[in-house]
Design a protein that fits this description.
- The complex is a heterotrimer of chains A (108), B (32) and C (85).
- With 108 residues, chain A is mainly alpha-helical.
- Chain A has helices spanning 2-26, 36-88, 98-107.
- Chain B is mainly alpha-helical and 32 residues long.
- Chain B is built from 1 helix and no strands.
- Chain C is built from 2 helices and no strands.
- Classes of the chains: A mainly alpha (108), B mainly alpha (32), C mainly alpha (85).
- Chains A and C meet through helix 1 and helix 2 of A and helix 1 and helix 2 of C.
Chain lengths: 108, 32, 85
Amino acid sequence: MEDEFQKADSDLDYLQYRLEYEIKTNHPHSAGEKNAVAILKELSAIKSRYQALCARFKAVSVEQKETKSCICAILNKTMTMIRELQKQTNLELTLLTEEEKAVTEQLK
Amino acid sequence: TLKDDVNALLDNARLESQESTSFIKATKVLMK
Amino acid sequence: SDLEQLCSYVNEKIENIKKTLSIRNLGQDPALKTTLSKIGDEIITVNELLNKFELEIQYQEQTNSSLKELCASLEEEFKDVDHLN
């Protein structure tokens, strides 16, 4: 089985080589023109670069969302505890400034 | 279509960056 | 999964051969040549877009590190408040 796969693999390689050789020989690209085979290779290279960058971007986005929700959770419990502390120590509750209210809403 | 996909993703990435920048600013206001 | 990998490996080679076959009659079909040249130009454009996209991803990876630092310092602040409590 393995030999058969090996043979099929080298046959495919030979086919690809012969085709490219034939195209380069029969249609030499004139100056300024792009080599047809090279364009096809660039096309598949650009597709795999795109897929690799998509995967990288997806990973970054997921990680970013996790860290943001962690930050929000800590901010919430910190602000709750500060209010508790102020009550216990009879300190007057410092009201949130307009700016703090705005960003609290934003983070919500 | 590949070009359109990349353009769409680029816009999405830029939007996310802006959101994160304002998120960090907001968090720093509350930390103060 | 090995067999699947083997299949996709062979299929990809077959796909490449099909693509190369599609440009075999390049000489006889001037329209094909024009199309190919347009694809060549588009590839340059898309590569430039991918460069911008890659820069954006690098920026986001830096933003992630700043968010993580922020999270860590907030955690410290919470511990102080908790200790006070």
